[in-house]
Amino acid sequence: MRYKISKFDIFLVVALCPLAVLGFDTPTMGWSSWNTYRVNINDSLICHQADALVETGLKNAGYNHINIDDGYFGGRDEATGMLKFHPVRFPNGLKPVMDHIHSLGLKAGIYSDAGANTCGSFWDNDTIARNVGLLGHEINDCQLFFIELGFDFIKVDYCGADGNQNKQLYYYEPAERYAAIARAIAETGRDDVRMNVCRWAFPGTWVRDVATSWRTTTDINPSWESVRNIIAENLYLSAYAGNGHYNDMDMLEVGRGMKPEEDRTHFAMWCMMSSPLLIGCDLTTLSPETLELISNPELIALNQDALGLQSYVAKTDGTTYVLVKDVERRDSTTRAVALYNPTDFVRRISVGLDEIQLAGNASVRDLINRRNVGNISDALSVDVPPHGTGIYLLKGECRRMRKLYEAECAFLSRYQELYNPGYVGSAYYAPRVGASGGMVVRNVGLTPSNDIIWNNVRVDDDGTYTVSFKVFGDRPAEIMVYANDGVGIKLPIKGNPDGEIVNAQLQLTKGNNVIRIAARDKAPDIDYMTIIP
Ligand code: GLA
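Above: inputs. Below: predicted complex with alpha-D-galactopyranose.
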């Protein structure tokens, strides 16, 4: 009898293999050695953590990587240049450890540096780790890591290429270094290796071409200040994440001494912002509370959602934030919402359904506490404790067209955080008093590619729309507006420091549209865009 594919089979494939269907990876999950052990790691420690990942059920919850961070290096063979492993910490090398990790059905991650020395050799006095970085050894080291040893993931740090963090004062260009390393990985023939770029700031939009994730901040530590600062630095980076590439908010400090509310905010916001989830605590001594939090299947589902979207700021009063993202299907009636209170006081945070493009009766599920909290028809209002966060899944009856798009949430083609944007000509978001959301995008223009793009502008019907831009300028200027592949429309700006609104009539098509602003000279500060049918 010939087997016929039934509707149920298709349902199973669509439901169980969303990644295969969409063809990209969700954020990396697993455990990493650095936060608890720094360079003081060894083979049995790593193997025990791998065992514990399985025994605690965390593997089943989705955590499938064991990542060895700095500390395993043992210098290089002077004659051959081959990498050596630490004689005391890994006397039998990495192969037995790797084999153990793989035998548990887990993937394994390794660590190196884009320059010559590692960070541990500079900051942790791990002097044996000098001259062990990838610089000049890209091909051989990648062959060793990914073919001989079989690693599946690599974090590439930057101390050896940042003159402030190496004795030789070597400075290199990150885009070039990481591209060379990506080429060396590709030359091994493996196309499934995940590279994490660790440049401690958003390095530039080129990073999506070489890495599956990139650190956006300096190192995390187990304190509320650290978590709060990292969230703040990632609030406006959602446009750069997605399709298998993610902003990395750093390894988790859950279970390492913060207050329960802070641990919850930390984990929940990492999930909402689609950061990799790399547990950083000792898995052999997990408290029940920590295990329960990091195993929460509803938060993990939010992080591993097949759309791979990072939430964006839908509303803020400058101190508290409402973030939102689509889950499961774009533009549907189901949306995840975070009410985030970084202040030291209880704050009532409210968001109208209309502010997140939902309408009708909406059911509300609290994903942190895993319970239904009822239905709403106008607004979600919650008293959020200090340093606390509520994460809710809302299912409304209708999805409405979005009318307001903030500039600070848009894609800036030349956005980067490494160099002075004035020197290198890159647009950036910045606070401005009187601006909607308290933020504008500054420094668009001068170079054609230094533009601002709203990539997901959805309208209900084909037609001509009045698209307006609020800008703040101090002199006359001109901006060019493009919809999809259409010709540019020139909009003259008078130059009003209190703000002015300019309009364009744009032809938009039902479904998704791309709207872009570029400028020959420096554009005024751009605050937001509105779309009226
Ligand atoms: C840097 C990285 C950390 C860690 C250490 C290792 O500081 O940002 O995450 O990898 O190096 O030395």
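Residues 34, 69-70, 118-120, 157, 198, 219 surround alpha-D-galactopyranose (CB under 6 Å).
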